[in-house]
């Protein structure tokens, strides 16, 4: 972007600061929530705040964080993807099955398979939504059935068991670098890369532009279709990665792998302050949302809280997170208005 | 497992030859049997289906195996209703919710259809017989026996069940808890926790990891779920608890082969699902042919291929009762 | 302005899609007849409708919410709250009339809660009802405790279990038909329905026109969840079982029926008739494939293709039209 005239610079600086403020606050919301949860569990149990337990939480949250990040990319364009779990399952099963049949395959080659499958599946979603003009919920509801159904048909009542997978696949996800689980490190890296892409690259910024105001983006000359297609494809690639990690982590790859993750990824993104009406939030927030869910799971087991309360508490947490988010957003809007008046 | 099919053929032939003249009036074969598992696409249920199909083929029956792709009770009832409308001679099922399937099964029985449950029972008046893989007591004991192989000196144990609404898992847990208090053999164990993982692999993994965090002295994680037990084994391996914590319970040998062979686990238990399906279909056939009446306590049936004679117990329950314990040395012998 | 509008015949958008659905139902029926010799019998067909009453009631309720441009994915969890509440009431020997009214009222209450959060506080409905879905499911488990309840007496089971006219027509089907007519009247023949669609088309314009947007939205949510309460009464009759996991996972099918019925997920467009036709289509297909013992996975694939194909139709038609007149092709 070239340097505009002085008045505009002044204005833009103000608005830039405001936007930075907004973004910081959005993640601050979930961070405060997380800190409160952490404090609560740390007070109530003496095992929560140990390094070992915290690394456990981190590796539990890792894969969901990637899935939530995938969901967030699509949510930012004012769309939705309920085929997240089905894409993960499809990519994971085909990859695991391939690995079982070709145990000699090099790791880097194998990693490309789920990414390519994810990209293809995501692109189908993107084409349907962007060019087919099918509402996102319907399109991905349909492809969810389709992808999951095809996984069943392909698997033919089989599963890929841990003894058939190449051993490196399992040992690599168990590895720790300086005490940090590789899984958590990989997830962090992926989320940060996606965040940087959305933040600093024109293509990434366009996702925000299309999501926050499609009409303005259109008049600005953005081809919304391409941006939406790209977002879905990126979502698919991330699901492919998440699916592979899921398969390697659990060891037994079944046809139902990651079923229901469309809802958990959505929940994580929403808790993390990603707006379901597009354009607001960040993938880091979504990843933190996944950490919140994993923390609740972990803390409630440590406290030996009955299963039923877990569901109830997570549900209430989602509503609370959305409410807090809305309150923050309206506060920001008010503060922007006063800034504008000045 | 010696050549199942040939033995079966031989056995079926013998039985037919021996018993046929006695009941010449009753139809002997060519029955239409329809079977639905809890959900299709899970290897365990597919194996029971294969077993049942093998029995039907030997006995000259038609067996149709179908069902929804996930465990949803309303879909199962719909499947059963569709079965009833196709006027089969018998229905075999593994019930998701023992009560919710009862109305449609009672309708089936009113129409003269023989109803057999296997794996998971339906309400007693809704079915003719229940081919139970293991009695609850037997299941509880075999899982604790496997736990004893893991940790002979005993210690803290925790359970992972599918959900508080799954009757057999809850019954197993109840009996195991009692046994650890009353039976001297199992008194070395102390039950510290029960968690639920909904037959979901990732959830089971996380629950196992969280259990190990919550109970630093935990020795064994026991699960009746064939999904949760391998996931727990994997969690132990991945989180560096090998040798400190063991997983056991029911699991397909293929799913836990890795952990037994690499020494991170010592013992799991199960039964032969192929044979369970075979026996369920075989007994259903004999009931249809009038050669076996499960409603009479003490009635016996010989299933040559399974190499065993089964006896009808209370409420038409026929216990298959052949638990298998897999260890490093034996796991390689099983092909499922 | 206003006179102009009232003079215009205010037919709901009836033509193309509903006709297509009707044609598809006939085609599906014919296909089912060839698939299975057991399909074509009154007893069989009426019997099979019972499996679509519960999702059907939820779909009618969801259609009201969707007409506003909102969504409620917590409805299936509300059914579970309803069934376990019925089990408690049955335990205390409460007469069914009172129990049913109470469950419908509790449904309405839960719906009101969703509505207040979504409409009064302006929270996104998908996020709110996602939370509510978990919270209400948890609530159902907490109320219902671990074991299912089955000792419902015959009066509790009448609505869901009885079949009239020579044991052919299920009572629940008649109840569904009555509800469908009522919802159709409400949405297409009353001011309330007109307001719903107008809010869905343009919320702000409706507000400026003096429509109490918040109140209408809350009402729609409450009505939808009240129907979920009614669905709970049917559930108890049909399955004779109340557990916290009742109707778990059925919401996706309900959403499918609503959008396949032509309801615009962004609100403002669609007909109740379309939703009912979509239910009949899905029902016929599932019944036919079920009777032919076609496996669950294949059915899932067929459903997915149908859904995508169904909604892709306008885009394909537009693309074909563009192909036919290449000179007019622009972006």
From TrEMBL, chain A:
Q: Which GO terms describe its cellular component?
A: plasma membrane
Decide whether keyword Cell membrane is in the record: yes
Subunit relationships: The complex is composed of two ATP-binding proteins (LsrA), two transmembrane proteins (LsrC and LsrD) and a solute-binding protein (LsrB).
Its main subcellular localisation, reduced to a broad class, is membrane
Protein localization: Cell membrane
UniProt keyword Transmembrane helix present: yes
This chain belongs to the protein called Autoinducer 2 import system permease protein LsrC
Which source organism does the UniProt entry give? Roseiarcus fermentans
Matches recorded under InterPro entries:
ABC_transp_permease
**Summary of the function given for this chain in its UniProt record:** Part of the ABC transporter complex LsrABCD involved in autoinducer 2 (AI-2) import. Probably responsible for the translocation of the substrate across the membrane.
| A matching Pfam family | BPD_transp_2
Instruction: Give the top-rank taxon of the lineage listed in the UniProt record for this protein.
Output: Bacteria
* Protein topology in the membrane: Multi-pass membrane protein
- Kindly give the PANTHER family that the UniProt entry links to this protein: ABC TRANSPORTER PERMEASE PROTEIN YPHD-RELATED-RELATED (PTHR32196), AUTOINDUCER 2 IMPORT SYSTEM PERMEASE PROTEIN LSRC (PTHR32196:SF29)
- Keywords for this entry? Cell inner membrane, Cell membrane, Membrane, Transmembrane, Transmembrane helix, Transport
Q: Where are the transmembrane segments?
A: 21-44, 56-75, 82-100, 106-129, 136-155, 175-198, 227-248, 254-276, 283-305, 311-332
A GO molecular function annotation here is: transmembrane transporter activity
TrEMBL record, chain B:
Q: Which cellular compartments is it found in?
A: Periplasm
Looking at the Swiss-Prot or TrEMBL record, what is one Pfam family this protein matches? Peripla_BP_4
Chief subcellular location equals periplasm
Q: Domain Periplasmic binding protein, which positions? A: 34-291
Its cellular-component GO annotations read: outer membrane-bounded periplasmic space
Signal peptide feature range: none
InterPro entries linked to this entry:
Bact_Solute-Bind_Prot2, Peripla_BP_I, SBP_2_dom
Q: What are the GO MF terms of this UniProt record?
A: carbohydrate binding
Record-stated family = Belongs to the bacterial solute-binding protein 2 family.
In Swiss-Prot or TrEMBL terms, this protein is called Monosaccharide ABC transporter substrate-binding protein (CUT2 family)
Q: Which organism is it from?
A: Roseiarcus fermentans
TrEMBL record, chain C:
Name one cellular component (GO) term.
plasma membrane
Q: Does the keyword Transmembrane helix apply?
A: yes
**Compartments where found:** Cell membrane
A Pfam short name: BPD_transp_2
Q: Does the keyword Manganese apply?
A: no
Q: Which residues cross the membrane?
A: 20-40, 52-69, 89-113, 125-148, 168-187, 218-237, 272-289, 301-321
Keywords for this entry? Cell inner membrane, Cell membrane, Membrane, Transmembrane, Transmembrane helix, Transport
Which GO-annotated molecular functions does the record name? transmembrane transporter activity
As for what it does, the entry says: Part of the ABC transporter complex LsrABCD involved in autoinducer 2 (AI-2) import. Probably responsible for the translocation of the substrate across the membrane.
Q: How does it assemble?
A: The complex is composed of two ATP-binding proteins (LsrA), two transmembrane proteins (LsrC and LsrD) and a solute-binding protein (LsrB).
What this protein is called in its record is: Autoinducer 2 import system permease protein LsrD
Question: What is the species listed in this Swiss-Prot or TrEMBL entry?
Answer: Roseiarcus fermentans
Task: Give the taxonomic lineage as stored in the record.
Answer: Bacteria, Pseudomonadati, Pseudomonadota, Alphaproteobacteria, Hyphomicrobiales
């Amino acid at each position: 972007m070239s340097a505009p005239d002085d008045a505009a610079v002044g204005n833009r600086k103000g608005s830039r600061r405001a936007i930075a403020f907004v973004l910081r606050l959005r993640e601050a919301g979930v961070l405060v929530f997380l800190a409160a949860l952490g404090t609560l569990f740390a007070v109530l149990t003496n095992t929560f705040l140990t390094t070992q337990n915290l690394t456990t939480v981190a590796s539990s949250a890792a894969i969901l964080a990637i899935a939530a990040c995938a969901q967030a990319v699509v949510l930012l364009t004012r769309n939705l993807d309920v085929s997240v779990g089905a894409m993960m399952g499809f990519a994971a099963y085909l990859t695991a099955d391939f690995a079982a049949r070709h145990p000699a395959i090099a790791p880097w080659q194998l990693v490309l398979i789920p990414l390519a499958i994810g990209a293809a599946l995501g692109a189908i979603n993107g084409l349907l939504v962007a060019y087919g003009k099918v509402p996102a919920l319907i399109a991905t509801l349909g492809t969810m059935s389709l992808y999951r159904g095809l996984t069943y048909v392909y698997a033919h009542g089989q599963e890929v068991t841990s003894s058939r997978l190449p051993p490196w696949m399992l040992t690599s996800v168990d590895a720790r670098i300086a005490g940090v689980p590789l899984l958590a490190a990989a997830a962090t890296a992926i989320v940060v890369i996606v965040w940087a892409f959305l933040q600093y690259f024109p293509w990434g910024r366009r996702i925000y532009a299309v999501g926050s105001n499609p009409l303005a983006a259109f008049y600005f000359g953005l081809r919304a279709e391409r941006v939406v297609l790209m977002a879905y494809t990126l979502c698919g690639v991330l699901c492919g990665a998440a699916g592979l990690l899921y398969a390697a982590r659990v060891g037994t790859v079944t046809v139902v792998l990651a079923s229901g993750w469309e809802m958990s990824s959505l929940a994580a993104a929403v808790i993390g302050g990603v707006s379901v009406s597009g354009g607001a939030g960040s993938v880091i927030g979504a990843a933190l949302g996944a950490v919140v869910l994993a923390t609740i799971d972990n803390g409630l087991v440590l406290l030996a809280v009955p299963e039923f309360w877990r569901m109830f508490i997570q549900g209430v947490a989602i509503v609370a997170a959305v409410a807090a988010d809305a309150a923050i957003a309206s506060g920001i809007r008010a503060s922007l208005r006063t800034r504008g008046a000045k | 497992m010696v050549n199942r099919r040939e033995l079966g053929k031989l056995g079926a032939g013998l039985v037919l030859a021996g018993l046929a003249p006695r009941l010449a009036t009753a139809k002997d074969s060519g029955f239409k049997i329809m079977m639905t598992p809890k959900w299709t696409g899970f290897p365990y249920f597919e194996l029971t289906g294969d077993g049942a199909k093998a029995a039907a083929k030997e006995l000259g029956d038609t067996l149709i195996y179908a069902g929804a792709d996930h465990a949803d009770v309303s879909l199962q009832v719909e499947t059963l209703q569709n079965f009833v409308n196709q006027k089969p001679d018998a229905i075999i099922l593994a019930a998701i919710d023992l009560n919710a399937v009862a109305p449609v099964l009672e309708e089936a029985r009113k129409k003269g259809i023989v109803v057999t449950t296997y794996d998971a029972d339906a309400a007693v008046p809704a079915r003719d017989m229940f081919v139970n893989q293991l009695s609850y007591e037997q299941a509880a004991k075999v899982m604790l026996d496997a736990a004893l192989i893991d940790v002979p000196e005993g210690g803290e144990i925790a359970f992972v069940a599918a959900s508080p609404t799954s009757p057999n898992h809850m019954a197993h847990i109840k009996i195991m808890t009692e046994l650890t208090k009353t039976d001297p053999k199992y008194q070395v164990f102390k039950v510290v926790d029960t968690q639920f993982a909904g037959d979901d692999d990732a959830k089971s993994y996380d629950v196992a990891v969280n259990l190990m965090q919550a109970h630093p002295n935990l020795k064994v994680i026991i699960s009746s779920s064939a999904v949760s037990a391998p996931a727990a084994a994997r969690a132990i391996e991945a989180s560096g608890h090998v040798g400190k914590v063991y997983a056991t319970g029911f699991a397909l040998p293929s799913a836990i082969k890795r952990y037994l062979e690499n020494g991170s686990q010592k013992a799991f238990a199960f039964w032969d699902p192929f044979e369970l399906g075979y026996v369920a279909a075989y007994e259903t056939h004999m009931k249809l042919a009038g050669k076996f009446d499960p409603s009479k306590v003490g009635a016996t049936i010989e299933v040559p291929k399974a190499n065993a004679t089964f006896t009808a117990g209370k409420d038409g329950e026929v216990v298959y009762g052949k638990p298998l314990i897999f260890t490093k040395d034996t796991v390689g012998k099983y092909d499922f | 302005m206003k006179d102009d509008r009232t003079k215009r015949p205010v037919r709901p958008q009836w033509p193309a899609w509903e006709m297509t659905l009707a044609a598809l139902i006939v085609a599906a029926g014919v296909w089912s007849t060839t698939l299975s010799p057991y399909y074509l019998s009154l007893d069989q067909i009426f019997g099979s409708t019972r499996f679509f009453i519960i999702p059907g009631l939820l779909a009618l309720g969801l259609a009201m919410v969707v007409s506003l441009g909102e969504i409620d994915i917590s409805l299936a969890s509300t059914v579970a709250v309803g069934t376990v509440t019925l089990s408690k009431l049955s335990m205390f020997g409460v007469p069914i009339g009172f129990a049913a009214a109470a469950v419908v009222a509790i449904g309405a209450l839960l719906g009101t809660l969703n509505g207040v959060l979504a409409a009064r506080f302006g929270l996104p409905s998908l996020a709110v009802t996602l939370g509510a879905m978990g919270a209400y499911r948890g609530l159902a488990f907490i109320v219902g405790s671990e074991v299912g309840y089955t000792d419902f007496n015959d009066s509790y089971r009448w609505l869901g279990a009885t079949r009239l006219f020579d044991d052919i027509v299920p009572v629940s089907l008649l109840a569904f038909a009555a509800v469908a007519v009522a919802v159709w009247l409400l949405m297409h023949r009353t001011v309330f329905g007109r307001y719903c669609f107008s809010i869905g088309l343009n919320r702000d314009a409706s507000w400026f026109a003096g429509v109490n947007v918040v109140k209408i939205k809350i009402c729609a949510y409450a009505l939808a969840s009240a129907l979920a309460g009614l669905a709970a009464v049917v559930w108890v009759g049909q399955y004779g079982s109340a557990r916290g996991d009742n109707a778990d996972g059925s919401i996706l099918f309900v959403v499918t029926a609503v959008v396949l019925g032509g309801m615009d997920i962004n609100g403002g467009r669609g007909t109740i008739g379309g939703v009912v036709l979509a239910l009949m289509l899905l029902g016929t297909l599932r019944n036919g494939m079920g009777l032919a013992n076609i496996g669950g996975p294949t059915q899932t694939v067929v459903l997915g293709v149908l859904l995508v194909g169904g909604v892709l139709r306008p885009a394909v038609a537009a693309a074909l039209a563009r192909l036919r007149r290449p000179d007019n092709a622009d972006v």
